[in-house]
Design brief:
Layout (H helix, E strand, L loop, with lengths): L8 E6 L5 H21 L8 H6 L4 E6 L5 H11 L4 H4 L6 H10 L8 E4 L4 E4 L3 H9 L8
Parallel strand pairs: 1-2
Antiparallel strand pairs: 1-3, 3-4
């Protein structure tokens, strides 16, 4: 019988290394990813019931310094709500204006933004508790 390993959920960080907030988010995500990998490989014969309650699912971290494409921005706006367009694209008034401004000048995109594409969630800025909450909601891997 074959068993297929579940593909990892993708978390993308739209990153700007010149911003301290963006560096903080990258650090948070790297630590969460390392923690998930560490707990996922523990010896299964030992009793780790306490740690398993706190265990996070592994995820694939994708860090990009490029602004999102128009389709990606549309998805992000769906996840966070169109009224937050002005928090994503500098100077924008609404969703349509954000799309137009981003197409004209990608540097208007305001990083950091962390996106869970598989589960339709995004966090604008460096709110650690919101980022960890988003990661904590990733589906846990189950053996079938």
């Amino acid at each position: 019988m074959f068993s297929f390993k579940k593909t990892l959920d993708v978390i993308t960080l739209f990153h700007r290394p010149s911003l301290p907030a963006s560096i903080r988010v990258l650090t948070i995500l790297k630590q969460a990813s390392a923690h998930a990998s560490e707990t996922a490989t523990e010896d299964q014969a030992s009793d780790h019931s306490h740690q398993n309650k706190m265990q996070r699912t592994e995820f694939e971290l994708n860090v990009t310094e490029d602004p999102p494409t128009s389709d990606q921005l549309r998805s992000i706006l769906e996840y966070v709500g169109g009224r937050k367009a002005k928090e994503l694209v500098e100077g924008s008034k609404d969703e349509r204006d954000a799309m137009r401004r981003l197409a004209q000048d990608g540097s208007k995109f305001m990083a950091p933004v962390t996106v869970d594409w598989n589960n339709g969630r995004a966090v604008i800025g460096d709110n650690e508790s919101e980022i960890l909450k988003m990661i904590g909601k990733l589906p846990k891997e189950t053996n079938v």
